[in-house]
Predict the structure.
Amino acid sequence: MAKTILAIGGHIGDAELTAGGVMAANAVEGGKNYTLALTAGERGNPPHLTVAEYREQKISEAKAFAEMVNGEAFVLKYQDGELPNNEEVRYQVASIIRKVKPDVIITHWHSTMHKDHNNTHQIVPDAQFLASVVESERIEGPRHYAPVYFAENWEDDLDFRPAFYVDITKGYELWCEALKTQWFVMNSKDFKYYDYYTSLARCRGCLNKTMYAEAFTVFDRNRIMRKDSF
């Protein structure tokens, strides 16, 4: 069934890598996908670009990816590595949740490697609560609830335990093409992002008894809700 998905990352590229397969499969089914990056991730700039130039390129890349998976990209104005963990960000995220009215919210598991990832992990569930419960002039639009799931990211903590897998086979080829819009995914000298995540999708597919899949988890208190899809 086609859904509306909101995938939230600390940087442009996080959601595209970790939940991009699900978004692509959702697009093939006629669903709508939104990405929200709380920072642009601009401080991984290549030598030929300044940080400011790379920020603009990253924003263009986010839009290009989103367009390929029938979606739209949002990018907040916070600087890479300096995402604050405060109420202002929570209300901004809550407003976007109410604006796009997702069926599903996907974000980071907790992280000791990346401050922005970890702050995002803490911000999003609180923003979900605000969007679904709180009446405030600081949040635009009517209240809206969607469940939060956490995606598998090699840079987030190793205690990530999948609660379920989602078959992304229908969207795998589209996702692979969409990832090519992300400069760092294809050109990083520090980590082979494209190879890792596309190969991981095959490994998770084996466990799911499908060709390709992505893994997601939930807070332990929600594991009683375990299922094999959103």
